[in-house]
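Incident log, structure service

09:12 report received: a user says their structure output differs between two submissions of the same chain.
09:20 pulled the input from the user's history:
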Amino acid sequence: MNIVDSHTGGEPTRVILDGGPDLGRGPLSERAQRLADDHEDFYLSVMLEPRGQPAMVGALLVEPVDQSCVTGVIYFDAGAVIGMCGHGTIGLAVTLYHLGRIGLGRHRIETPVGVVEVELSDANTVTVTNIESRRVQAGVMLDVPGLGQVKGDVAYGGNWFFILDPAPLPVDAGSIRALTDAAIAIRDTANANKIGGENSEPIDHVIFQGTSPNPEMHSRNFVLCPDDAYDRSPCGTGSSARLACLVADGRLQYGEEIVQESVIGSPYRLSCTAGPNGGVIPTITGQAYIMAESRLIFDARDPFKDGIRT
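09:34 re-ran on a clean worker, output below:
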């Protein structure tokens, strides 16, 4: 299985060029569901240690339905197959450029939640125009064991988010363990109480928003991903969901650019325009860097060829 590894703001992406399971034809949403239902062993073996690493996202290249797209892609981490991945799309664009499959300029990529556009301004800098994002519920109160009452918004940016702004804990690198535990408890409580999307979609990510000591930054965030690892980048789909909340609250104007910082200090430049269905169309600009080109080997004699499951 040939792969290229990159990182976007410290968050790793593994692009799988070949060797993945046969997911058949049809809409990418159906193929993604097939991957989730029938091929968990495949994506866990690629993401889990010793072959993978915490926080890594896989990007499986597939044939697009929309032939105007340069590729189709299905994203996943060690916790779930996910609809869209902002940092992964930045990493994918840089990888395709590195391989000579695309040039600088604008390109379309098909994901299970729709077509997104990328614009490469150089070998490392990518602007993603994401799908329409929206806030679904505002000011939801949760009674969370160990935390008490917290308030947040439910929003969609390609994945489902519960966003707490401001966060109940300091959003800084010294608080990552406490932030992780709190975010897991909030996600579990939200899902236990059936708080999520309009069609009962569960919350898969939690965002804590805080202030940054850097005056050039609009804010700093901590993002919990489905695999219970935190996002080293500011999270593209999470930033999209938050843009929808900021606009809904009158705290951001269309076309206004802000810089969002992750808990480890990596930045995205963000802005949005009005969406056709009442949401926002986000743009996310970040940088990715190639780390490795390699071939994964699955030795039948290896006791951990399917990943460490404990």
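09:41 both user submissions now match this output. Likely a transient worker issue. Closing.
09:42 reviewer note: Residues 224 and 230 are 5 Å apart (CA to CA). DSSP finds five helices and 16 strands in the chain.
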